[in-house]
Amino acid sequence: MSTTHGSNGRVAGKVCIVTGAGSGIGEATALRLGEEGGRVTCADLDGERAARTAAAVVAAGGEAIATTTDVADRSSVEAMVADTVTAWGRVDVLVSNAGVNLPGLLHEVSDEVIDRTLDVNVKGQLYGARAVIPHMLAQGGGSIVNVSSVNGIVSEPFLTVYSASKGASVMLTKGIALDYAKQGIRCNVICPGWVDTPINHAHADMMGGLTQVYDTIDSFQPIGRPGEPREIAHVALFLASDEASFMTGSVVPVDGGMTAQ
């Protein structure tokens, strides 16, 4: 399997924000957008990781800045967007990828876990969209790509709160799409399956460990392997680009067949 793609300038000149850009799917998406000519704001709660991703985009010949952003904090999100507009004058793409997965049985999870999950996974995407939409309206359009999960469509043991938050992401996407369909703003959502990123490790521990999960992955993910972050990034790039101009409100599973069962 090869996930190497050359640059064709598919988002050339577009100003793109990626949250959770310090690792995993967010990092891969920031790099992919940069490869295709995007100017990328790499936002992450871990500012050092965001800076490393931005440096990697630049090293590969792209343009990037980094911001330390807590998507659960409205003022932090607004500052992220303001920094982007200051740097490049506009916002064309928002990839709302930042998220947390704090698994547990519902009656055992704490208020803090519930609040953090909803604050990051739901409010983070709400705040992000609300902050970029005025800029997109003023410039005549844009693309918002939310990253949910297959657990926004189907659930699994130990993921009740996470699934609730990811289901909210799916419906948020549809609502935004309908509100702004005639104003040039598209909003779509990606629902990744099990991808090889650290966000899944705590869930894996509750399922017998990462080795056990990967040894038995074909029991729930028919393709028989975990996804790679770059495979999700390719889809985010497509949805960000004008190639997806007739897509809005779409729920796009990228899950190795998990939800086909």
TrEMBL record:
GO terms for molecular function: oxidoreductase activity. The lineage of its organism: Bacteria, Bacillati, Actinomycetota, Actinomycetes, Propionibacteriales. The keyword Oxidoreductase applies. This is Short-chain dehydrogenase/reductase SDR. It comes from the Bacteria. CDD domains: SDR_c (cd05233). NCBIfam families: PRK07231.1. The keyword Heme does not apply. Belongs to the short-chain dehydrogenases/reductases (SDR) family. Transmembrane segments: none annotated. Keywords: Oxidoreductase.
